[in-house]
Amino acid sequence: MVTRVEPSPPSVDLRWDAVERVAGSASFQRSPRLRELLLYICERSVQNRSGELREQQIGCGVFGRKSDYNPGEDNIVRVEIRQLRKRLQEYFASEGKDDPYEILIPKGAYVPVIEPRSKPVESPDPAPDASVAPIAPTTPSRRFVEFKWAYPTVIVVLTVACAAMWWENHLMQQQVAAVVHAAPDRGPLWPLLFNKDQETLIVCADSAIVVAQSMLHRSVSLEEYLAHEPAGKPANWGSDSNSFVQSLIHGRRWQITDITDARLVQRLGRLNHDHWDKVSVRLARTTQVQDFKNGNSILLGSIRSNLWNNLFEPALNFHFDYDERARTAFIRNRAPRAGEQPVYLAAPPGESGESYSIVALVPNLRHTGNVLIIAGTTGESTEAAGEFVMNNVTSSALLSKLSKQNRDRMPYFEVLLKSGTLSGVAKNAEVVADRILPGEISHN
Question: What residues does each domain of the chain span?
Answer without folding.
Answer: 2-116, 190-436
